[in-house]
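Inputs:
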Amino acid sequence: MVPLTSIRTSNGKLEIVNQLLLPHKTEFIDINTIEDAHDAIKTMKIRGAPAIASLAALSLSWHLSTAIETSALPEFFASPEAMKAHIEQILAFLFTARPTAVNLGAATRRLAQILQASVAAKKNTLDIAHDLIAEGNLIADEDIGRNKKMSKWGGDWLVRHVEGGGVSSTALNVLTVCNTGSLATSGYGTALGMITYLYETGKLGKAYYTQTAPYHQGSRLTALELQTLNIPSVMICDTMVGSLLQHHKIHAVIVGADRIARNGDTANKIGTYNAAVIAARHQIPFIVIAPISTVDLDIGDGSRIPIEHRPPIEACLARGILYPGVDGIPNQAVVMITPQNLDGVYNPSFDVTPADLITAIITEKGVAVRKEGQEIFDLSDIV
Ligand code: MRU
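Outputs:
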């Protein structure tokens, strides 16, 4: 089984899979410029908090490697100071591609710090470029390792938690939202990584996932990932979470995150808050799993997390193939599912789940469990 991937750097190219065409068509597109990377992130050709940070970082590495290979570096940058000004502009531009996921800002800040330190150390433009290329590649590469670590922390914790309640942990049923697997990260995934770990260790019963309208990351991407991994799974519509939790034994809801505030309030894909409220009603553990770079200690609580509102038209469209296809050939289609020119459309891409609805937050450093009677988290041990 070849895991799906969102970014490819082989063949002397930087490419991404166009996620707008999945699951019916796998088409790689070249990312040749910083503008290409910005556009791909903004238009959702690549999405998922860690994956967009990786692409932003790699696009800078790519930009600089190309300048070195084509001997254009001296023309581009007359001096380290000129180079600093130019790269700061690039990083500021990349940062504007999407606002909610903190990973993008964390990556651009990290690169800005390397730039600052290398210029302060009086390095020449070639050495500064090499420092930035190395850091950009590291940002993308380190993601898989930490995903595996946090998935193990989370999976082992859930098994202990369930067994502590006197329940067998051999067939755990879990619900997730959105897409948090190898397509949303550099590999293995966050919430989907934890689900994969439960499957690999023989603890998973079924993975339920919501379709996740309006972009359908669940039915288009999570469905494909689970199928590729041979993980037993069941899709539900977003409106069915309450029914599922009423009528089926679900041991945990497991979600990723785009930004976690200091108190544990968590921004994630729209619909996550609904699932958390219903999980609390049914006393089902609600678990958030994300890398340390998703925790934003500068933000005290969720009210200060910027929430991206996507263009209204996106909530009026569905993407897919014409079924059963014209002349047996599946045709890609974007269809309108509403009357044209609706009066109003509310289309926030994310919502914030308050910390008091979250049972545990997991990073690559470990598991923070909200203490009995407390409404907020102490994240100091896991960041
Ligand atoms: O709008 P998207 O598809 O980029 O949103 C993605 C999510 O909300 C994921 O759940 C989140 O990034 C965590 S992924 C590892």
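Remarks. The radius of gyration is 21 Å. Residues 125-164 form the longest helix (40 residues).
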